[in-house]
Design goal:
The chain is built from three helices and five strands, in the order E-E-E-E-H-E-H-H. It has a five-stranded antiparallel beta sheet. Strand 2 and strand 3 form a beta hairpin. Helices cover 28% and strands 34% of the residues. The chain has one domain. It is of the alpha+beta class. It is globular and about 40 Å long. The model has no long low-confidence stretch (mean pLDDT 93).
């Protein structure tokens, strides 16, 4: 059984200047081939986007991550049983991910959350 559950909000080891950022657990899937995969949103980040420098991204709406990587990232449980309304980012992201994952064509993050946030920012920089 996973220590993570839908509705939890966690503090985690953040990037510098994002100490107020939080992880919201949206769903937990337990799979035969990969174990527990936790689907989270990361709120309160500042991801710079070269195409819109005046409007940094503040939320990553959908991030599938290995339970062990999430466990190594979190520092404390902030809230439990928080009701959330799934965003379009989550609904579309999860549906597409699940279909591709079941077909063996999608993966999940296996690195600390702060590294994923940095990878997202680095990816935006490279697509410019």
């Amino acid at each position: 059984m996973s220590k993570f559950a839908t509705g939890q909000v966690w503090a985690y080891h953040t990037r510098p200047a994002e100490e107020g950022s939080r992880i919201r657990v949206l769903r937990v899937d337990v799979t035969e081939r990969a174990g527990a995969i936790v689907h989270v949103a990361v709120e309160g980040v500042t991801i710079l986007n070269p195409s819109e420098p005046e409007r940094p991204t503040r939320t990553i709406g959908f991030m599938p991550i290995a339970e062990a990587s999430l466990d190594a990232s979190v520092t404390r449980l902030v809230e439990e049983d928080v009701t959330f309304v799934p965003s379009a980012d989550f609904e579309g992201g999860y549906g597409g991910w699940k279909e591709a994952f079941d077909a063996g064509k999608a993966g999940f993050w296996t690195t600390p959350v702060a590294n994923v946030v940095q990878a997202v920012e680095d990816g935006l920089r490279q697509t410019r």
